[in-house]
Design goal:
heterodimer; A: 560 residues; alpha+beta; Methane Monooxygenase Hydroxylase, Chain G, domain 1; 7-stranded mixed sheet; 4-stranded antiparallel sheet; B: mainly beta; Ubiquitin-like (UB roll); 5-stranded mixed sheet; two-stranded antiparallel sheet; 10% helix; 33% strand
């Protein structure tokens, strides 16, 4: 099967959907390809609450204040032009979403803005109750559906980007619904594939966030930046078992109600790690994750290996007012917050690193653009709360615009890509291997969690590289299975091929960075080093990951 | 306090030529049917086809199946001791095992 389009957008979270809408509004034909179902599979739909933006509806604000907070959270590594774009264009995109009916929560007739850690003032908009992600997804999907110029296609697993004389000219995909290969010819291609949280055992995103965009970009010859910076969200739900809720849900609870983080002596402990909370929610994600893991290491963890989070100081009325029906969902899980603390622990949440792109969202390959979490650098070594959805919308819009303009300047569609036969060959290849691919995914996730997680050391990282190499060799050169529709081992094989390459990139970058900064915490190098105020750039050469370091991009001019 | 569920799972590519397979699945009280299906893939048979994205949040709405004849989300239905019968949605086109074609027609690559 094949299809032709001006702009191919890969991934249908907020970044991909906004890119598709923007490219279509510029007159380009668009094919929006999604691994799962349109608007359902990425990280956007999982977002619980906050979206940071300098609207100034709650208190006066200006994008430059948001920008200053973003740079401070990024610990000196932000790509400043990208961070500036995020903060400066944020208000316009948030208002566009409001016009499209997303339903940002209102207070006294204005859009409500909540205070979140790392921000100097209330800046985060949201949709009640814990409905930000679903509302953003649904709104963009509705806009998509009104646009005849956008063709939508779910169940497409992208196998390889197509290259013609060094230019990206589309992709080869596996159509999961039939098992057949598909050639997608495109003048411009946008990678909006999100992050890599699936590499970790405990994660807060969907099962298809295995870093495939990073792997596709690397294999095509594009550069990645700062792959060592995986954000761990400190208070992911740990126990008791809670179903039908995202593990990230305690974040909004803390925004609205404060809450107390306690060790197994029922004592607050974050003050010993430099941040006294006093019942408020002020600890940033990197410090919070570190503090909890260190308490556990010292034998002061909760029974399941985390910390307690208590809202026992809140009345039933206050809880009900803040979270309405969510309180009933907790009750169905046997949780009464007025009577018991719950257990929380760090959980892989977001990737600061990613595909190197300029503020036009151009990668270093002609014809290839990136958007959203797939882009590296805007958030430096640690992302500020609330910047992810803003980034998805802003970068998505910009990528769609750039991709449409690139497509207009490109006249001919090549009928033969240089790597087309090899990529197609892989989609129809078959090995008789009896590997247990699901178990391999689990092994990789355990290794990444335990050795390349929130606390790292040389010994652990080297061990992880050994495991990754062993799994890569076990995977072999051709996928197993019968090649018919929804062949799970075959799908796992293509996922693992990407996941193992990306895991290697993260681990090698983490091993090279001999310091502690933001989300990258080295127990054997516990201090930040001024010599490491650098981004690490990664490329793939002859199957090896080659790294170099460069000073972060500085902004040209900044208002204050 | 590990308990065991007996999951009777429909397998096959053709709605008229399927088979039932039985799996004993250990679980802690509170775990979901999706937890059980993921356990089967890792420990018994990685070829078992299931569809899900968000794992636990009930946000993606992809994991719909029939449990003892009733449509449920596998991520919010809880495992129970004893036999539980899991089948693909009977009102949707079968793809494989527990996976059916649930995308709206306008969101499919092949509009069948």
């Amino acid at each position: 099967m094949r299809a032709e389009t001006d702009v191919l957008v890969i991934g249908s979270g907020a970044a991909g959907m906004y890119a598709a809408i923007e490219a279509a509004s510029e007159g380009a034909s668009v094919l929006l390809a999604e691994r799962s179902l349109i608007g359902r599979g990425g990280a956007t739909v999982m977002a619980q609450m906050t979206v940071a933006v300098a609207l100034g509806t709650e208190t006066p604000d200006h994008w430059s204040h948001h920008y200053r907070d973003t740079l401070a959270a990024g610990r000196g590594l932000c790509n400043e032009p990208l961070a500036q774009l995020l903060c400066e264009d944020g208000p316009e995109c948030i208002r566009a979403m409001d016009d499209w009916g997303v339903g940002w929560a209102r207070k006294d007739g204005h859009i409500a803005q909540a205070m979140a850690p790392g921000h100097d003032r209330p800046r985060c908009v949201y949709v009640d109750f814990l409905n930000t992600g679903p509302a953003v997804s649904k709104t963009l999907r509705t806009v998509l559906n009104k646009n005849a110029g956008i063709r939508k296609a779910g169940d497409l697993c992208i196998v390889e980007l197509l290259l013609t004389d060094g230019e990206v000219t589309g992709a080869v995909a596996l159509h999961l619904g039939s098992g057949a290969p598909v050639i997608l010819s495109a003048k411009s291609t946008v990678l909006a594939t999100g992050g890599l949280t699936r590499l970790y055992r405990r994660n807060s995103a969907s099962a298809n966030m295995g870093g495939d965009g990073y792997a596709l970009a690397l294999r095509a010859g594009a550069s990645l930046v700062d792959m060592e910076f995986v954000q761990f969200f400190p208070i992911g739900h740990l126990a008791p078992r809670l179903i039908g809720m995202d593990p990230i849900m305690w974040d909004p609870f803390r925004y609205k109600l404060g809450g107390r983080l306690l060790n197994n002596r029922m004592e607050e402990f974050t003050q010993h790690y430099g941040v006294a909370e006093d019942g408020k929610y002020v600890i940033t994600r990197d410090v919070g994750s570190y503090a909890i893991l260190k308490e556990v290491e010292a034998g002061r963890g909760s029974p399941h290996g985390g910390a307690y989070l208590s809202f026992q100081h809140c009345s039933a009325t206050a809880l009900r007012e803040a979270f309405g029906p969510v309180i009933d969902r907790l009750a169905a899980n046997g949780i009464d917050l007025t009577k018991m603390p719950i257990e929380v622990a760090p959980i892989a949440h977001y990737h600061m690193g990613g595909i190197a792109a300029d503020p036009q969202m151009r990668t270093d390959l002609p014809g290839l653009f990136a958007a959203g979490e797939a882009v590296g650098g805007a958030n430096g070594a640690n992302r500020l709360s609330g910047n992810a959805i803003t980034e998805a919308l802003v970068f998505g819009r910009r990528a769609g615009h750039s991709a449409a303009h690139h497509a207009k300047r490109t006249h001919a569609m090549p009928d033969r890509a240089d790597n087309g036969q090899a990529a197609l060959g892989l989609t129809v290849a078959s090995s008789s291997s009896d590997i247990n691919t699901a178990e391999m995914v689990q092994t990789l996730q355990a290794t990444m969690q335990d050795r390349v997680g929130a606390l790292r050391s040389q010994v652990g990282l080297v061990h992880a590289l050994d495991t990754i190499a062993r799994l890569t060799s076990e995977l072999g050169d051709a996928p197993p299975g019968d090649g018919k529709r929804f062949d799970m081992r075959r799908i796992d094989w293509f996922d693992l091929r990407n996941m193992l390459l990306v895991a290697r990139a993260v681990t090698e970058a983490a091993l090279a960075r001999t310091e502690t900064r933001g989300a990258h915490q080295r127990e054997d190098f516990p201090q930040p080093s001024p010599d490491w105020a650098l981004n690490q750039i990664l490329r793939l050469q002859d199957g090896r990951i080659v790294m170099s370091a460069a000073a972060p991009q500085a902004s040209v001019a900044v208002a204050s | 306090m590990t308990e065991h569920a007996t999951l009777k799972v429909w397998r096959g590519l053709d709605v008229n030529a399927g088979r039932w397979e039985i799996y004993e699945v250990p679980f802690e009280p509170g775990q979901s049917v999706l937890d059980g299906l993921r356990w089967i893939r890792i420990h018994r048979d990685p070829s078992l086809a299931i569809r899900f994205s968000c794992i636990n949040a009930n946000a993606c709405k992809e994991c719909m199946i029939e449990l003892d004849g009733k449509t449920v989300y596998a991520c919010t239905a809880r495992l129970q001791s004893g036999e539980m019968t899991l089948a693909p949605l009977s009102n949707k086109k079968l793809l494989r095992d527990l996976v059916t074609e649930i995308a709206p027609p306008a969101e499919r690559f092949v509009r069948s």
